[in-house]
CO dehydrogenase flavoprotein-like (Vigna unguiculata), 536 residues
Amino acid sequence: MKHLCSYFCAITITALLFSLTPASADSHENFLQCLYNYPENTTSISSVVYTQTNSSYTSVLDVSIQNLRFFNATSKPVVIVTPLVVSHIQATIICAQRHGLQIRTRSGGHDYEGLSYVAGVPFVVVDLIKIREIEVDVENSTAWVQAGATLGELYYTISQKSKTLGFPGGVCPTVGVGGHISGGGYGFMIRKYGLAADNVIDAKIVDVNGNLLDKETMGEDLFWAIRGGGGASFGIVVAWKIKLVPVPSTVTVFRVRRTLEENATGIIQKWQRGANKFNESLTIRIKMERVNSSKSGNLTVEAQFESLYLGRVDDLIPYMQKSFPELGLVREDCTEMSWIGSILFMAGFPNGQSTDVLLNRTQSDGLFFFKAKSDYVRDPIPDVGLEGLWPFLYEDEAKDGYIQFTPYGGRMYEISESETPFAHRSGNIFHIQYIVFWREKGDVAAQRRVNWIRRLYNYTEAYVSKSPRSAYLNYRDLDIGVNNDGYTSFSQASIWGFKYFGNNFNRLARVKTRVDPRNFFRNEQSIPPLISQGRK
Ligand SMILES: Cc1cc2nc3c(=O)[nH]c(=O)nc-3n(C[C@H](O)[C@H](O)[C@H](O)COP(=O)(O)OP(=O)(O)OC[C@H]3O[C@@H](n4cnc5c(N)ncnc54)[C@H](O)[C@@H]3O)c2cc1C
Ligand SMILES: *[C@@H]1O[C@H](CO)[C@@H](O)[C@H](O)[C@H]1NC(C)=O
Ligand SMILES: *[C@@H]1O[C@H](CO)[C@@H](O)[C@H](O)[C@H]1NC(C)=O
Ligand SMILES: *[C@@H]1O[C@H](CO)[C@@H](O)[C@H](O)[C@H]1NC(C)=O
Ligand SMILES: *[C@@H]1O[C@H](CO)[C@@H](O)[C@H](O)[C@H]1NC(C)=O
Ligand SMILES: *[C@@H]1O[C@H](CO)[C@@H](O)[C@H](O)[C@H]1NC(C)=O
Ligand SMILES: *[C@@H]1O[C@H](CO)[C@@H](O)[C@H](O)[C@H]1NC(C)=O
Ligand SMILES: *[C@@H]1O[C@H](CO)[C@@H](O)[C@H](O)[C@H]1NC(C)=O
Ligand SMILES: *[C@@H]1O[C@H](CO)[C@@H](O)[C@H](O)[C@H]1NC(C)=O
Ligand SMILES: *[C@@H]1O[C@H](CO)[C@@H](O)[C@H](O)[C@H]1NC(C)=O
Ligand SMILES: CC(=O)N[C@H]1CO[C@H](CO)[C@@H](O)[C@@H]1O
């Protein structure tokens, strides 16, 4: 670990006096000078610093934007830094404080509300796109993965080294491990192995003082906080050490579709009562969207039952006949493949697609505008509740929207609520995501979709978790509450904080108070220190 103290102490007093002052154009220049004068790697950092006048600025900013809603945001960073080494991160953290700029850290850029690259104050984006090495240790079933790597890069690299190791993370290969793992992270192995964050065994983070810390030096509480509490409130995560999990060399997948005419509602009813109790090697997720009925041509709802089974089809079919006969699964619906093949299947790639597509950081379907929300369900939704949902999907706004149910149970019930900041464990039967996509530009088009999803969310209130109504941090939703601009009080943050973290929110605030008492790392939904902070 580098000792930056002499440099940092020299500026601490200035930072204290000026860090709360809005930045001016002059201070941008001063910020750059500070970076270039930083004790280490002063020459190499200039090759990764982009100001708004740089011809590459726009492409560097846009390359990781995953939601068109924030594509032409008016509040762009004054500078983008794409660090090559840890000292570039340290320099940026120190100099940004000294010159009154906030930091937004970006790994994969999938934040649903664009918080990793949009801010209403003068700010710097630290984009970790060049910090993305992955080292797999097959002998010990572990890997070090740097924060700027994507899930696709991680899964690909694991599969190159072993056919019987995997990692229980999310489904979309372009998602960055920096945001994903620090916010929880789940995919089709959630019932067997829990969340991505549940499988972290060490981490490296640069804190507000510019110190590079690992599990030993950061302390138990900070190591706890960044495994589900979101990294952005605490520092810049550089790398995770993760536990790889055993997967069979052959797994089985299926995706079967049932419309309302084919008794989808009845089958979902049965699923709600069984899916969290099935063998934990089996995860069956449901995606509901509208389709034209093949019988009448009228709109109907189709439920897609998508599943990964960590075993062979010969075992799955009799198990399904016994446990979930209502779905009517037959052998022809199923495909046996490698675990990495299942990653491609779930990500929607056609059969026979080469694995190296996982290294491509561009979304294969292109970009959309989107807005999403999440919920947790503790008691089965009655028929009348489901039947009231379907008309929402018939509305025009829902043309490219869907509702997704992910079952809990298995490993998720074995981990206590307080073991990590992610509190949504036992008691939850399943998790819901509502999402709507559109391609039409403009505020009117956006407002229609946002209104639709808000009405839908209002409708489901009666059927989901209450007091507080829980939400998943990685499906970030600013509708559930935000910090006041530039001023973060615990009571204001409590409005959204208990929804994401349950009672763990209190402990997160205590960790924040210890590691970043002056609240440098802040955003619309950052954890507040217990003492009120900010300008004013
Ligand atoms: C298409 C798509 C599919 C998805 N699929 C899944 C899924 O299957 N399962 C699931 O659980 N989630 C899924 N998500 C949600 C995803 O997990 C979150 O959006 C996640 O936060 C994205 O991480 P990122 O690094 O790509 O995003 P970013 O936008 O880069 O970051 C997200 C947040 O984390 C902070 N952050 C990022 N990197 C760091 C770092 N190194 N140190 C500190 N803070 C950091 C950012 O500042 C921001 O607040 C999906 C999202 C999208 C858009
Ligand atoms: C910024 O722009 C200048 C001139 O346009 C160029 O020489 C420099 O390399 C650019 N910086 C980066 C990081 O690309
Ligand atoms: C962004 O702005 C450009 C230039 O005005 C425009 O051509 C483009 O369509 C806009 N994109 C989005 C997603 O709004
Ligand atoms: C496995 O871990 C042990 C103990 O940390 C270490 O000594 C060994 O080098 C590791 N194996 C590999 C292949 O890195
Ligand atoms: C629909 O599913 C329910 C619950 O699984 C079942 O009881 C009912 O018999 C099914 N109806 C039809 C018409 O198949
Ligand atoms: C669950 O399925 C796995 C894989 O087929 C099997 O090894 C295990 O015994 C099953 N567990 C139970 C409790 O049935
Ligand atoms: C469904 O029907 C509508 C109206 O006839 C048509 O515009 C639409 O393209 C159809 N959708 C699909 C997926 O076939
Ligand atoms: C299709 O919808 C129309 C209009 O709602 C309705 O009159 C008709 O009966 C429906 N057809 C079928 C086969 O359900
Ligand atoms: C990556 O994927 C995008 C979208 O599918 C495609 O246009 C592009 O050609 C791919 N890039 C490479 C290097 O394969
Ligand atoms: C929310 O739902 C309630 C009934 O559940 C209804 O009375 C109210 O009008 C709805 N609000 C909005 C904004 O749709
Ligand atoms: C001490 C230190 O971090 N040196 C790094 C400076 O930057 C180059 C790459 O530009 C690295 O290779 C060095 O390790």
Remarks:
- The domain at 251-336+368-463 is CATH 3.40.462.20 (Vanillyl-alcohol Oxidase; Chain A, domain 3).
- Residues 1-22 have pLDDT under 50 and may be disordered.
- The CA atoms of residues 285 and 406 lie 5 Å apart.
